Amino acid sequence: MEQRKRLLQRIATAIANKVNSATLRVAMDRPVVVSPREATRGDVLLFDGIFLQRPELSGYWDLSLYLDIRSDTSVSRLQQRDSGPCSPDHPLNRRYTGGQAFYRQRCHPMEKAHIIVDNNEVARPFIVKWDDRSPN
Question: Entry's Gene3D superfamilies (predicted)?
Fold first, then answer.
């Protein structure tokens, strides 16, 4: 709830047109404290993160893009980045893979996304869905 308050509710209610440019340092799993900056008409605010198609967040997005990736590929990239275990079934990866599986089953992010990009080959991503609801 804290991140939603700091980012989304501020934007949705146009509190002094100020936005935060970051809230979490992923590598350390710790909050980041930054001074809000002014958002002006025409700015594009991009939110990068997992689990963003949860029902309590759906009213905030004008457009959503989902990067589709196989679990084994995702864990392999995680292992390369963080030098962790490379098996999706390893106990250290279960929180991540289990959370993703739960999210996909409960929230159906691919059905909700306007655009889906197959990101299994990092050098060759390709669009697999471009919904007519997407802004041009």
Answer: P-loop containing nucleotide triphosphate hydrolases
